[in-house]
Amino acid sequence: MSLPERWRQWAAQPLWSLGFRPFFLAGAAFACIALVGWGLWLHGIWSGRQPLGGMLAWHRHEMLFGFAVAIIAGFLLTAVANWTGRPALSRTPLILLWLLWLLARLAWWLPLPAPLFLVLQLAFMPALAALVGRELWRAGKRDNYPMVLILGLLALFQGQTLLGLLAAQEVWQRHGELGALWLVAALMTVIGGRVIPFFIQRGLNRPPTPPTSPWPTRVLLLGSLLAAISMALGGADAPRPWLAPLFAVLAALHLWRLWHWHQPGLWRLPLLWSLYLGYLWLALATLGMALWHLGGWPSQSLVTHALALGGLGGLVLGMIARVSLGHSGRPLQVTRAMAGAFALLFLAALCRVLLVPFSALGLGLSAALGALAFALFVGGYARILLTARV
């Protein structure tokens, strides 16, 4: 069999049929590996080869632009096909995009010249934004254009982060990474507002709720973008009381959403309470930022990790579990192991926020619990993602 024939045969495998399959699987596996490596380094167990810029720079960058961006890519590449009715990215184009993501992960550990390292890191986000934007533009789906704006800003903030790394300007790195984290929060706000109430309604067999005013969603999107831009401009360097009202409004609207979505029956279904608790962490993080800017919360870092581990991690794990089942034709029920994974990630976030101020062991425990949660997803869902739709 010739090489082109082998490539076509490999590209025809179920793994490359839809974007969620390779990116969910690789993103979750990468989260597991990265959290284990980070925990071992924190406690001095691993002191081997260091990535460019050191472990802290790698950890900050990769949990966003390695892990989170992989999940975002898998979700959007799959969802855009549903929104537009156009064929989804698959086979060779999907493989090439995935390889761009993979090369960027490997580049941290290779002795590459700085320009090549920069090119490999910055190639993925513009490619993803262009692919998503092209499909939305061809289908005339203007309501989803904010997705492209967020992807473009993520690429910009990644550039800010990496330029800070190469120029040894730690403050540029920090600003870019915090801006990117709150941009991901903006994306979670948009996507969560669409799918969580729908999943709750379907999961509990409730009739569709009547449409609500679009203004809370618009205010949340605009406010989340402003929050992200403020972070990229140094809004987390020191408390700024004039930023507190922005985060207070976001927190109030997030909590209003949670109250509006709540149904007593959701606590019986892990696929629902995992998403609900993940969104609760997002609401608590915005409330924490409001309090920090007013001087009522001692640590901005704790708020950041509440958003990163509890909000981003919790919503991602619940979302990829639900989407993987739905798009592979499986029943929307998780195993006890997967329900345990949701609980472990919630505990990991609690350890990072509540235990760390009192004991450094909270860092390692949080990383271990988070890694185990994503390992349970990989172990339980690899067969689903690698095989054809039922």
From TrEMBL:
The chain crosses the membrane at residues 23-43, 63-81, 93-110, 116-133, 145-168, 180-199, 219-236, 242-259, 271-294, 306-325, 337-355, 361-386. It comes from the Bacteria. Pfam families: NnrS. This is Uncharacterized protein involved in response to NO. InterPro entries: NnrS. PROSITE patterns: PROKAR_LIPOPROTEIN (PS51257). The keyword Lipoprotein does not apply. Keywords: Membrane, Transmembrane, Transmembrane helix. It comes from Pseudomonas saponiphila.
